[in-house]
Amino acid sequence: MTEALTLDQAKAVLEAFGPVAQLRWNRIQVVTEPGKARDVIKAAFGSLSCDRVIQMSTADVGENFELTYHLTGPHLTVISIRVHIPRENPSIASVHDLLTPAGIYERQIHDLFGIVFRGHPNLARIILNEDWPLKEYPMRKDWKPVKGTFYGGIQEEVR
Amino acid sequence: MDPFFLLLYVLVFPGFLFLAAYALFLAYLDRKVGARMQHRVGPPLLQPLADFVKVLGKEVIDPRGVDRPAFDAAPLLALAAVMTAFLYVPVIGPSPVAFQGDLVLVLYLLTLPTVALFLVGWLSRIVYSTVGGVRAVTQLFIYEVPFFLALLAPAIAAGTWSISGITALQAGHPWFALLQPIGFVVALVGLQAKLERTPFDIPEAETEIVAGPWTELTGRRLALMILANEMSLVVGAGLVAALFLGGPSVPAWVPAGPVAALAGFALFLVKTIAILLVLASVKVMTGRIRIDQLNDVGWKYLANAALLQVALVLFMGFWGVGT
Amino acid sequence: MVEITVPIGPQHPALKEPVNFKVFAEGETVVRLELDVSYNHRGIEKAAEQRDFIRVVPLLERVCGICSHSHGTAFVKGIEEIMGVEVSPRAQYIRTIVAELERMHSHLLWLGVAAHEIGFNTLFMWTWRDREVVQDILEELTGNRVNYGMNEIGGVRRDIPPAQVKKTLSLLPGLDERLVKYREMVRRQETMILRFRGVGKITKAQALSYGTVGPTARASGVDYDVRKDDPYIAYREIPWNVVTSNDGDVYGRTVVRIGELAESLGIVRSCLEGLPDGPVTVDAPKKAPTGEILSRYEAPRGELCHYIRTNGTDKVDRLDIRTPTLANWTSVAVCLVGQNIADIPVIVAAIDPCLSCTSRMAVVDTEGRARPCLSCTSRMTVVRGEDGEA
């Protein structure tokens, strides 16, 4: 097991992309622009020897969506790469070619939040049922189920 | 033979009625033994009969577009083939309808249930059944050669093509199971494959293709097909018992007549139950193999072993050893 | 050869939960795969935002029946860290005991299911009988066989009296013997070896790049176990080892899970013998300060992540769950291509899929009444009959 990454080591590589902070004894976060997310991931995989992605977490923080890539490696430190995506026409470049499981994670985020991942080969439904109406993104804070819309299950006429 | 007695033999005992009753009994024994080995309780004695009656009364569902007459006829074909084959298996003594070559006839009739299963699979028009039916026929090609060869060896050694003849020969003669152990083992393995039981239940692989060709069988079709399957077990066990374990043939010192028949019948029961116990144990002790792995095992080991056995028998016969 | 569509799911005997794999096969070889995991979606993440910390814990336990304690503990320890609450050692030990018992029952269940997938029902019956011993222990300790309800913010809800400690300790050696037998059986049973060896093989590099977690990854030689990498509850204080293998195929995963069973037994024993005295719960504030945390937990299936944001109220602001099964799906989808149809259930079962964890979304009534969903079973009642008209 290699040593845990220190804040200075992480800063040296990631400072160029945005502010770096240590959130926990084994978690370092860098906040960057959506356009630079891919470069940060490449830097983390290269210079910081991260070798896998743990999670792509999303949250609705009001004015924009916050998307965080959590990566880790043999140093057992979690590198969180945070981007803020504007609420209007949310879109970001897909990272499915850099992180293979992102293929599934991005589909799920798209289903729930409506963030479009440019360059993703197949942004089809994965977590919501096939009857779910298009353009309704349930995990957004301002989403409420619309009366009269069919969201899934048995329809009365089909008996 | 007196026509009345012949009719009694064929229809009641040891003919069709006995076959059905014994098939249900062996099915019970199979399930009970398997359950006890798995640390479970197992079904009561009349369970297979209860299952048969229950399934008989269920609704018959026709998949859309299926060829109804053919779909109805296939289980009947399987049942008829198996029941006819049983007439040639000696149960209380030589079969009254035996003739030279009835071994070949029985082997042919025993392949018909598999062909009927393939037909059912093909007619069902659902991918699970098609894949299952294809697997059933593939399996048939793989195990038929070793199975036939293994059953051929006793015929060569005995010098007769009649099952009853081979059985009668073993009355004063060591059993062919002892003289041809390789053939005996191959015959048992082939029997397990013919009956499509684990490790060879590939056509009916429940976790892969739902129920294979059995998926769309319902109601009386399913009941008859299951009965045909259970009867195949009796016929197969009876055949192997007759060819390798001497069947119902009694030693010469037993007085002929009813006593000999009774003793022969008892011997038949004991031998077939012994074979069933072996098959049930193998079923419980193994998992299912894949069709391509069966291909390997079948051609590499079974076929070669069977060929070796036949070669040995011919060789020994040439030199006048054995029979 | 003609390409046929074999629908595996949503209802299929090989699957214990509904998922739709549309497998496109040529003969017996898989060429393509389409995945749909929406069938168990129940809206738990959204529902969690509307419940305060006392009510949300039972909701989270019902994300999954088999790994219910995992979800509960992952959430509770995350919130405790945000609040700065120091949990008593006795509570940590009790949480560990229940966690490892859960791992044992889950692995025994998996062993039976894997055997059933290859038609080896004897092992299925035997392992599930032994699993009953673990379930009985859990029932005595927690009052329930699944969804234990042991966790609360600040500790656990029930104590373990000394009589129960003794009784549980007495049941463990019997299980130990059975595990030794199973280890032997897996090594020597020919049909298991035939069906498991070489099937679904992924290399270490592939395991890392596909983001696989848990026993699936450890079977390929990846030495990641959150209990060692980011220790929580009592794992720092108990001696135990990470089990890995270099086989990378389903056989390797079987060996790893049996090894983990033995390790879990050891951990339970150590915890019971060394149970510290003290209170089982401490007072925790009703509201959590603003903050966020990535709470990681080693569930029986792999690494479970709860990303929690709080905003100063008594409810959570955002709860994002990444379950181990979702992380492992990529490896399944990729390594199924080129395999036999006969191997599909084996490979799928080898990652120990828990679809209730994977899809956790809402059923919303057409009249607009959001109904809280507390059942683990799917509410998707539209079943597509896949009878030949693919």
Polypeptide structure, described:
Chain A has 159 residues and is an alpha/beta fold. Helix content of chain A is 19%, strand content 28%. In chain A, the strands form 2 sheets. Chain A has a 5-stranded mixed beta sheet with strand order 1-2-5-4-3, with helices on one face. In chain A, strands 6-7 form a two-stranded parallel ribbon. Chain B is mainly α and 323 residues long. Chain B has 13 helices and no strands. Chain B has helices at residues 3-11, 16-37, 47-56, 68-87, 102-123, 127-158, 163-169, 176-179, 181-194, 206-209, 219-244, 258-285, 291-318. The model of chain B has no long low-confidence stretch (mean pLDDT 89). By secondary structure, chain C is α+β, with helices and mostly antiparallel strands. Chain C has a single domain, classed as Cytochrome-c3 Hydrogenase, chain B. In chain C, 46% of the residues lie in helices and 13% in strands. Chain C contains 14 helices and 8 strands. In chain C, helix 2 (53-61) runs antiparallel to helix 3, helix 4 packs antiparallel against helix 5 (121-142) and helix 6 packs antiparallel against helix 11 (250-273). Chain C starts with a strand and ends in a 32-residue tail after the last helix. Chain B binds chain C through residues 37-40, 63-64, 124-128, 130-131, 198-199, 201-202, 205-210, 284-293, and chain C through 4-7, 12-14, 28, 115-123, 125-126, 129, 189-192, 194-195, 340-345, 387-388, 390.
Short note summarizing the structure:
Chain A is an alpha/beta fold and 159 residues long.
Point out poorly predicted stretches of chain C. Answer: 361-390
Q: Largest sheet of chain C, order of strands side by side?
A: 1-2-3
Structural class of the secondary structure composition of chain B? mainly alpha
Would you identify the CATH architecture of chain C?
Orthogonal Bundle
Quote the average pLDDT of chain C. 84
